[in-house]
Amino acid sequence: MRGVELPDLTPYLGQMTFGGLAGYAVGYALKKVGRLLAIGLGLLFIALQLLAQAGYVQVDWTRIQKDVEPLLQQPGLQSLWERLVQALTYNLPFGASFVGGLLLGLRAG
After folding, report:
1. What is the dihedral sign for C-alpha 81, 82, 87, 90?
2. Alpha-carbon distance 62 to 59, whole Å?
3. Are 26 and 94 a contacting pair, CB within 8 Å?
């Protein structure tokens, strides 16, 4: 009985390795940038509250909530994630390994 002959995947190993490493680096960087963005938004909130308490500014938090709430609903975030992954994997022959590396990088970052 003769065994099944498997195709030679050697030419694709470099692409898969590069895709995984590139995805990991992008995921790691995105998580770090996200943390910096969260810190910046937190500091902005503190500054606004201190300025409002001192009487320099008046903040309409109800209006801000009304404007921001649609952006934070789950379908909007899912669409944003899908658009990000689509943009990052555009025209990449190694998109699957890139997405895998991206998820690992987000977890590690």
Report:
1. positive
2. 9
3. no
